[in-house]
Design brief:
Layout: E1 7-10, H1 18-31, E2 35-38, E3 42-44, E4 54-60, H2 66-79, E5 83-88, E6 92-94, H3 100-108, E7 126-131, H4 135-140, E8 144-149, E9 154-159, E10 162-165, H5 171-174, H6 181-191, H7 198-210, H8 215-224, H9 228-236, E11 240-244, E12 256-257, E13 260-265, H10 271-277, H11 279-286, E14 292-295, H12 304-315, E15 320-323, E16 341-342, H13 345-349, H14 351-355, H15 358-372, H16 378-393, H17 395-409, H18 413-426, E17 434-435, E18 438-439, H19 441-454, H20 460-474, H21 483-512, H22 532-546, E19 551-552, H23 563-574, H24 576-589, E20 595-597, E21 600-602, H25 605-618, H26 628-649, H27 660-676, H28 678-687, H29 689-708, E22 712-716, H30 737-740, H31 754-759, H32 761-776, H33 778-783, E23 785-788, E24 790-792, E25 799-806, E26 809-816, H34 819-825, H35 831-835, E27 839-841, E28 851-853, E29 858-860, E30 865-867, H36 868-871, E31 877-882
Parallel strand pairs: 1-2, 1-22, 2-5, 5-14, 7-11, 14-15, 15-16, 19-22
Antiparallel strand pairs: 3-4, 6-13, 8-9, 9-10, 12-13, 17-18, 20-21, 23-25, 24-27, 25-26, 26-31, 27-30, 28-29, 28-31
Helix pairs in contact: 1-2, 6-7, 16-18, 16-21, 17-18, 17-21, 18-20, 19-20, 21-26, 23-25, 23-29, 26-27, 29-32
């Protein structure tokens, strides 16, 4: 297997296609990347900005350049010695008429050849929650008609620009009052239609349309649709039921991705579905065009281990595979998954103990609690958020489980509901993994812990019900007469806990509890660990042991903020006391634009706290306050972030119930801050300079660690420079590749150059030189030991140090932390005066080494200890290499 030395994530769509990607290959080669890591490239819904709403799993999207374009990209990469990793989406597809499989299911129902491809409950009609209002109301208001869809060769129920095909067996009913020959021939085609020959049927209808004037029939169908009772009777005979989007949360007949009704679950656990959904990707792998795969949302699958084993068997042992998986603290990838690792969210979380100043964080927490009048702990707030998800957003999924549990356990729905709610509320991670009653001992233990945690919250009857549900999840007492039903219940529970956790924590609580935004990150925790550097080193040793080939991410298309915005927030925590003073001053200055609405002030104090954090974290370092157009552009991006934040918080507005008044008042407040109060903007720009500089230094340190710690560094597009992006869709904008691609890996760099630091040139140079070292010594970084090192002396707390060793190869990484304090304490001092006698202590077997510092290209003499003043002359990171 060719394991990547590094990966570069590239978002397709939004202006990026295969031709443009081909043009970037020389730059990626110069940067030192070994594998391009591509976002989904298969056909997606029209206008898709991300590609996860796949409409055809076997068609490389023509919008991007089609299969020829993809193969040309692969060939160009290969010619430069680079590989290609594709992001694939096995869990779901678009529930869209653009998806031919889904369209077939709509038309033919369970009889469609694709009727079992999707996770559909065929005990009821297929629900289609894509109307803006209830079906009956849409009919009464004339928004729904009958028509002839000549392009697709079907009669259809039309709703604006959507044409839902009617089942051919109902053609005679639809056309019964029409006597013209075209109607009669269509009715006859419908009578004899066969789902097994749907292409022939559609071809025959299209041929009729081509050979006849269809306009009179279309006009007559439209007129007939003015009879509401007739239209509803036709609708009642269809294998589907059109409904309002607002009804989706109450219950659908199909499994959706998270709470997105437009994405339907795919049953890749069925052998023929797996084969059909992976036909083209397997061709691309076997032909050598694709070298690796990234599996999107693996926890959504019915049987992740079974899927991955089948995939591994299909692609062979030499294909690199990573999975998108959120690992809870202490959780590891299951041992039976034949993959190289995860996509690396846990690596982002590992930054916290290394870079968070806990004293500063406590200062922030105290002020935030005073602002919020905080009475709930974080676990209690998580419970509150989860309960909202259980009873509102995922009510349909929960109700379906309650009914299944009732039938299996013979208990009343109320008792089952109370027990199930508490189990879901207490579930601490994404899911367990049980297939046909087989479950690991660790998952058994996890369920026992959950059961113990909820015991005091339930009366005896509900506690017994919870015990029975846990037994069912463990596979205990499986009997032949309801074995299938047991498995379905278990599968649905496991497929619910993941979305429930994600939407409760990442997409609700992270936008409600905003005391320190750097913690509100995918894979992260709101309660920071107190272990500091010792804990960081422990996490890195664990990473070396469990997934040395996993990706090490710092920014992705799904992170809540760019890596340099997060690095700047760590600097803010160091400067917490001054930030609190600034917040109070700015808040008082702008109090006049805060309005009191029925639900309280808008913005409320917690939201004001978040707004000022966001301004500081994301303010472009190069933005001149006199550049009104630049400030306006930043303000629009900030407003988009706040709109999403307010709706995700689900407190005073929501995606499903937008509070226009509240949102407008908050946005007007921010516009007043940023566009009408030039003195405020100037004050912000001047006051945050130390935090900006501290963030840039943190960014270099985080990058040096990512390049040399266990795992494979994953560079998200543009983040080799400065990445201050907001949450999506802001973080999916194309970066300034024209400027980035001017990078020269051998050009001299001054590590004291402030402009180079702020422009991102130093970070880009660090990436280039770090990757060059990795490419020279891949085994050292992929397989080498991880050795924590310690500093001694007055400034020891400001240094993170570790070594990587493989055979005779050795690399030592040193990175500064808490740069705001360094700047403050070092004011007026030269570097050697600041560091004084602070030194890096080396293990005995490293004493006689000679070193080369790869960033400055200086030689460093060895010894028992190395003086920091010699290592860090003008630098804040250093990477020492030795081959002796």
């Amino acid at each position: 297997m060719r394991v990547p030395v590094s990966t570069y994530r590239l978002q397709f769509r939004g202006g990026m296609d295969f031709d443009r990607a081909i043009g970037l290959v020389p730059y990626l080669k110069r940067l030192g990347i070994t594998h391009l890591y591509a976002a989904p490239v298969f056909a997606a819904t029209a206008g898709s900005t991300h590609g996860y709403d796949v409409t055809d799993a076997n068609l490389v999207d023509p919008v991007l350049g089609g299969r020829d374009g993809l193969e040309q990209l692969a060939a160009t990469l290969k010619a430069e010695g680079l590989g290609l990793i594709l992001d694939i989406v096995p869990n779901h597809m678009a529930a869209s008429l653009e998806n031919p499989w889904w369209r077939s299911v709509i038309e033919w129902g369970k009889a469609s050849r694709y009727g079992h491809y999707f996770d559909i409950d065929w005990s009821q009609r297929l629900t289609l929650p894509f109307l803006g209002k209830p079906f009956e109301q849409a009919v009464a208001e004339g928004e729904i008609t009958l028509t002839l869809d000549r392009e697709n060769g079907v009669l259809a129920i039309r709703y604006f620009d959507s044409f839902y095909p009617v089942h051919p067996s109902t053609y005679p009913l639809v056309l019964e009052e029409f006597t013209d020959p075209l109607a009669e021939r269509l009715a006859d085609l419908g009578r004899h239609a066969d789902a097994g020959a749907e292409e022939d049927f559609h071809a025959a209808v299209r041929a009729l349309c081509a050979g006849n004037d269809c306009e009179p029939l279309i006009a007559a169908l439209n007129q007939r649709a003015h009879e509401p009772q007739f239209l509803m009777s036709v609708h009642d005979l269809q294998p589907y039921r059109l409904m309002s989007w607002s009804e989706a949360a109450k219950g659908l007949s199909y499994r959706r991705f998270f709470e997105i009704a437009g994405l339907v679950g795919l049953r890749v656990e069925a052998e023929d579905v797996f084969a059909d959904a992976h036909r083209t990707i397997l061709e691309l792998v076997r032909s050598g065009h694709v070298d690796g795969l990234r599996i999107d949302h693996v926890d959504g699958l019915a049987d992740p281990a079974g899927y991955l084993q089948r995939l591994r068997h299909s692609v062979g042992k030499d294909v690199f595979i990573v999975v998108e998986k959120i690992l809870a603290p202490g959780e590891q990838l299951p041992a039976d998954w034949p993959v190289q690792g995860s996509t690396g969210y846990e690596f982002i979380a590992a930054q916290v103990p290394a870079f968070l100043d806990l004293e500063g964080f406590i200062t922030l927490r105290q002020t935030y609690n005073q602002l919020a009048g905080e009475t709930l702990s974080i676990p209690e707030r998580m419970r509150e958020a989860k309960l909202r998800m259980i009873r509102v957003n995922f009510a349909g999924e929960v109700n379906a489980l309650v009914k299944q549990g009732r039938d299996l356990l013979g208990l009343d729905e109320e008792t089952i509901c109370r027990a199930l709610e508490e189990l879901l509320l207490a579930f601490p991670r994404y899911r367990t993994y049980s297939v046909q009653g087989e479950m690991s001992s660790s998952d058994h233990h996890l369920l026992d812990q959950v059961l113990a945690a909820i015991k005091t919250r339930l009366d005896e009857t509900a506690a017994d019900a919870a015990w029975s549900i846990v037994d069912l999840l463990k596979g205990a007492g499986r009997f032949e007469d309801h074995r299938v039903a047991d498995d379905i219940f278990r599968c649905r529970f496991q497929q619910l806990t993941g979305p429930l956790m994600a939407k409760s924590l990442e997409d609700t609580l992270f936008f409600r509890h905003v005391e320190f935004l750097a913690l509100n990150e995918v894979g992260g925790e709101l309660e920071p660990d107190e272990g500091g550097l010792d804990h960081f080193h422990s996490l890195m040793r664990e990473r070396r042991a469990t997934q040395p080939f996993g990706l090490s991410a710092s920014s992705t298309h799904d992170t809540k903020r760019g890596e340099d915005a997060r690095a700047r927030l760590f600097a803010l925590a160091e400067d917490a006391g001054r930030f609190v003073s600034l917040f109070q001053r700015w808040r008082e200055t702008n109090r006049g634009t805060v309005q009191v609405l029925d639900g309280g002030p808008a913005p409320d104090p917690e939201l004001e706290w978040a707004i000022f954090q966001a301004i500081i974290a994301h303010w472009p370092a190069e933005l001149d306050v006199e550049d009104r157009e630049g400030v306006a552009d930043f303000t629009e991006r900030l407003l988009a972030f706040l709109e999403k934040s307010m709706r995700e918080a689900k407190l005073r507005t929501d995606w499903n119930d937008v509070n226009d008044v509240f949102e407008s008042v908050v946005k007007d407040h921010v516009r007043s801050l940023m566009l009408d109060n030039h003195a405020f903007v100037r004050d912000v720009s001047e006051e945050i300079r130390p935090i900006i500089r501290g963030g840039l230094i943190n960014g270099l340190s985080l990058t040096a660690i990512k390049l040399t710690a266990p795992g494979i560094p994953d560079i998200y597009q543009g983040s080799e420079g400065i990445d201050l992006s907001f949450v999506d869709p802001d973080n999916r904008r194309p970066p300034a590749f024209s400027a980035l691609s001017e990078f020269d890996p051998v050009a001299p760099v001054s590590w004291n150059d402030r402009k180079a630091l702020e422009a991102g040139w130093l970070k880009q140079a660090l990436v280039g030189r770090g990757l060059a070292l990795r490419n020279e010594r891949p085994d050292l970084f992929l397989r080498g030991d991880y050795i924590p090192l310690r500093c001694e002396g007055r400034r020891m707390r400001h240094v993170i140090a570790f070594a990587r060793r493989h055979a005779e190869q050795l690399v030592v990484t040193l990175a500064c932390r808490w740069p705001v304090a360094m700047t403050r304490d070092g004011e007026g001092l030269k570097a050697d005066q600041f560091w004084g006698d602070t030194r890096l202590a080396l293990p005995e077997d490293m004493h006689h080494r000679t070193w080369s510092e790869i960033l400055s290209r200086r030689s460093v003499a060895g010894g028992e200890a190395l003086l920091m003043r010699d290592l860090m002359d003008g630098q804040t990171v250093a990477i020492l290499s030795s081959d002796e």
